[in-house]
């Protein structure tokens, strides 16, 4: 009986210490108002982005889970290691499970950094980027770009040969170093924690996973990150138009560096895009050429048929290379 009392007291002490030190300090924040933009209008609004709503865990939800976790840790001899990442990993694991073996694996992420920690974060993310590129044969792309109209808001795009390659990435020494930095320095601004979208790219060639056939990272580039929500009744037509747009971009646009898209691993019916362009004005010339292409005109025509469940989310950014 004495042992049980001691364990119970110890568990409460661990929770109290963790909570008072900010270990479980999650905050709820109201999502900023959504700005509605017709997709064909963003060509003229390249410095204006649509806001992605984010969801944040509540403090109570985390604390409710803290006690059982602590008791489990005590009885198994494991140290308390619950962080916000442990919650995020559940979502990551679910996404990995949803994508089939051997299929291409990609992710988009959006985050905002505290201005005073910008240089520190840039140094860490670029070291992480370099190690991922150099040390992981099956890591195919790791780009970092900054929002054209919102300083210190960044977008990451990563590609891996398959989900096994992504699992290996998560277990790499450089991945763990970067995670340790996030825990120790807490570089993200309020409401700016990473929002990550996992998907398996579609309409890619058989040489997808051959790293040495892929283009070298561009020092400059104009990026477009998009989330689309087509209506179920429009799904077939949507995919046909997107397929034509990708094919036209890949085969006829000399200034187009990349056109990657796929369906969300966690939310069927939601599609994520990452595009890159080169040329004058740090790549905007290439995007303007894309927006004036015949295949893009077909896409504009499709958007005029009221095909979306909710407004598209479109972000413009510029590549940052160390």
Task: Describe what this molecule looks like in 3D.
The chain is an alpha+beta fold and 322 residues long. The protein has a single domain (87-319), classed as Alpha-Beta Plaits (2-Layer Sandwich), CATH 3.30.70.100. 39% of the residues lie in helices and 19% in strands. The protein is built from nine helices and eight strands. It has helices at residues 2-20, 59-76, 84-98, 118-135, 163-170, 173-185, 235-252, 284-291, 294-303, and strands spanning 105-112, 139-147, 153-160, 195-201, 222-228, 256-264, 271-277, 313-319. Strands 1-3-2-8-5-7-6-4 form an eight-stranded antiparallel β-barrel, surrounded by five helices. Strand 2 (139-147) and strand 3 form a beta hairpin. The chain is globular. Residues 2-88 have low confidence and may be disordered.
């Amino acid at each position: 009986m004495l042992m049980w009392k001691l364990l119970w007291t110890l568990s409460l002490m661990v929770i109290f210490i963790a909570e008072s030190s900010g270990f479980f300090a999650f905050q709820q924040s109201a999502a900023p108002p959504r700005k509605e933009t017709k997709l064909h209008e963003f060509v003229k609004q390249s410095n204006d982005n649509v806001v992605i709503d984010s969801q944040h865990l509540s403090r109570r939800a985390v604390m409710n889970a803290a006690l059982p976790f602590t008791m489990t840790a005590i009885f198994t001899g494991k140290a308390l290691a619950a962080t916000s990442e442990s919650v995020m990993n559940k979502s990551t694991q679910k996404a990995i499970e949803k994508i089939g073996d051997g299929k291409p694996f990609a992710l988009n992420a959006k985050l905002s950094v505290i201005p005073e920690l910008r240089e520190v974060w840039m140094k860490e993310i670029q070291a992480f980027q370099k190690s991922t590129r150099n040390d992981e044969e099956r890591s195919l792309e790791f780009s970092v770009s900054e929002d054209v109209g919102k300083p210190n808001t960044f977008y990451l795009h990563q590609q891996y040969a398959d989900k096994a390659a992504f699992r290996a990435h998560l277990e790499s020494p450089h991945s763990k170093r970067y995670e340790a930095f996030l825990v120790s320095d807490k570089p993200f601004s309020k409401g700016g924690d990473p929002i990550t979208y996992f998907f398996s790219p579609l309409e890619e060639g058989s040489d997808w996973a051959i790293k040495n056939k892929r283009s070298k990272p561009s020092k400059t580039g104009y990026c477009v990150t998009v989330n689309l929500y087509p209506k179920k009744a429009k799904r077939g037509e949507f995919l046909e138009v997107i397929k034509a747009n990708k094919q036209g971009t890949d085969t006829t646009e000399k200034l187009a560096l990349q056109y990657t898209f796929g369906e969300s691993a966690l939310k069927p019916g939601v599609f994520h895009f990452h595009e890159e362009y080169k040329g004058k004005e740090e790549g905007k010339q290439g995007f303007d050429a894309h927006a004036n292409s015949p295949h893009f005109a077909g896409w504009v025509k499709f958007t005029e048929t009221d095909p979306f469940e909710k407004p598209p989310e479109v972000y413009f950014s510029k590549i940052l290379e160390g």
